[in-house]
Amino acid sequence: MTKFSERAQGFPWPFAEGETDFRYSVNVEPARVRRTTATGGWGEHLVDLGGSDYTQLMQQRREVIAAHPERRRVLPGMEMACWDLLLYYLRDMAAAYPESMHLGEEGKNFHWRNDLLGTDQAFTFGQEESLPTDPLTFLASEIPDDLVLLTERDGELFFDAGLVTFAASWSVSFNVGMSMTEIHGPVPRMTAEGMTRRAEIFMRQLQPGQAYRRLNWSTSKHRGERLDTSLETYREWESEIPQLVEEEDWGSLQLRNELQHFVRLPMTGTVAFAIRTYILPLAEIREIPEWRDQLASILRELPEDLATYKGFGDFREEIVDYLAQPADSMG
């Protein structure tokens, strides 16, 4: 029996069985439903702790939060939504992982313990001074998901608060205050073909407490274990892909997945948009025949504008050729 890495076992493969082409769609489904894959499975919980690398992932995330305080943006009037988000996620994690996550409640007083990170914090709901930092930053330091809060105005959803450490070529500071249409304007076909509007209508119709999810994918803009490819750090990683292409190191190129959750928060009615990022090198994907063959087919068929937006338009043929060669045939 083939032994897959822990990362591959929990990787949320973004394509349905038998799918050979890709176009943007409003591909939402209920959250907290486990999906099996060729390597294992994913999706049982709202928050995926990521196996044994959770503490390392959270260390990287906390370092970004400390070094880039501008990654947290909260517009006036969003403070209570941040508390709503904090409590919703702490309750969910305590229910999903009772062996390591604990939340005591007594009226407005709470006591949170995260045994994996060593967090032990009592706080009073709505009183920021009872936390070591603001509620959004506190939550972002406990979970690996990037967090965005959306509010409705004049029939549209606007990005009014968020803390984002692992953005894929975008900037939370630039996008805050924008509508969904404005944010997704650069994505080929998505707005023009009506997907942005349909997604917005779906999120506006969510009922309090409801949680749904979708998967989005691209190729990485870097090599190695970097998750932070935000525009704020562009100068740190801008040369990594050109170097990879020059060296023809296709195995180090990575498929980058975003598991996106949409939750209507129960107290404020704010829509929470959470993004959990996963990366898996093509060298590992090539070890998995079902994934290797399917990805090669999808990349080969993808229209040019989507291939460019997904990050591999200039070296599509090289990647497909690389995937087409079984791993054991390469020296």
Automatic annotation (TrEMBL):
<dbReference type="Pfam" id="PF11927">
    <property type="entry name" value="HODM_asu-like"/>
</dbReference>
<protein>
    <submittedName>
        <fullName>DUF3445 domain-containing protein</fullName>
    </submittedName>
</protein>
<dbReference type="InterPro" id="IPR021848">
    <property type="entry name" value="HODM_asu-like"/>
</dbReference>
